[in-house]
Structures are given as C-alpha cells and as structure tokens.
Amino acid sequence: MRYQISGKQIDIGEALQTHVKAELGEVIEKYAQRPTDAVVIFSRNAHELACESVIHLSTGLTAQAKGQATEIYAAFEACREKLDKQLRRYKRRLRNHHNNRTAPVEFDGGSSYILASSEEHEDTEPETLQPIVIAEMETKIPSITVGEAVMQLELAGQKMLVFRNEGHGGVNVVYRRDDGNIGWIDPRNSK
Description:
191 residues; alpha+beta; SHC Adaptor Protein; five-stranded mixed sheet; four-stranded mixed sheet; 4 helices; 9 strands; translation regulation
C-alpha cells in the first residue's frame, strides 16, 4: 500500500506520518483486503486544523473523509473515525462484490476541456449568460456494475459518477437526485 501524507503550509513530522500509517493501515486491513493507495492532507483553517483523506481500493471504490479539530492528531482521529464508519457500513457490500470480482477494476481514460474567456474581456458583459467550463482534468472511468457505482457514489460523497457498465460495456451515469434517491442513466436502455 502506498501512502502520500502531506501538509498545506504545515510541516508534517515523522512521528505524525508513522502514526497515520499505523492507524490507517489498521482500519484498512480490518475492512478492505486489497487497498492500493491512501492520500492524507493536513491543512490549517484559522485556528482549526483539518485532515482530508482519500483511500483507493482495488475494487474501484474510493472512500474519503474529512476531520477538523484544534490539534493535528485530533483532526486525524476525527477523519479516521469517519473512514472507519464508512468502510464498516459497506463491509458486507464490499466483501460480496469482491468475491464476485476475479480481477481488479479496469479504468478507461476520459478528458474534459477548458472553455474560458481571455483575461482582457473579463470586465465586459458576456454576450450570453451561458456558464463557462473553467476546469480541465483527466479522469478515469471505471468498468463496474451499477451496484458498485452506487456504492462508490455514496462512499465518495459525490453527486454524480460516470462509469462503463460492466454488463454491456456502455457508458452510464448514476447521480444523487434532489429527493435523495439515486438516479441511473443508461442511454442503451432509452430506445
């Protein structure tokens, strides 16, 4: 398992790194058999310290949590408890999907594009009130089942997830609806 432990404008000492590796290792070993990597970032927000962590599992799922406190170890403990709760809540589901899956999840590449105005026209009124896409990023599109996609959506706390449906190979979307339910878009079934 790979760990990436860093701080945003904070020095992270060896003792904290050792503590994080030991505690996260214990939580992950308890609930997830094949983790791939963990990213832990510490930051300061006024008088509070925050700890954000993201754990990628070989099943394609991503668990993330954030904890805040006035001390750095307490912030990490709050974050660790949230991860522990998430992984415990989904342990049975993860184990069932893990037993059915013989190989790790495959990822396809996907990209998005920047459509931004030039800086010299920032002060002028735009011709239309259409929003502009501001960010560009490469993303990985997992090949998973619909159930695994819903699980990953809930674990990561995302509003939407694009994935390749393992059943038929088509691109699908699951998303959190305003009423709290999960929506599923499968263009192949819309005919």
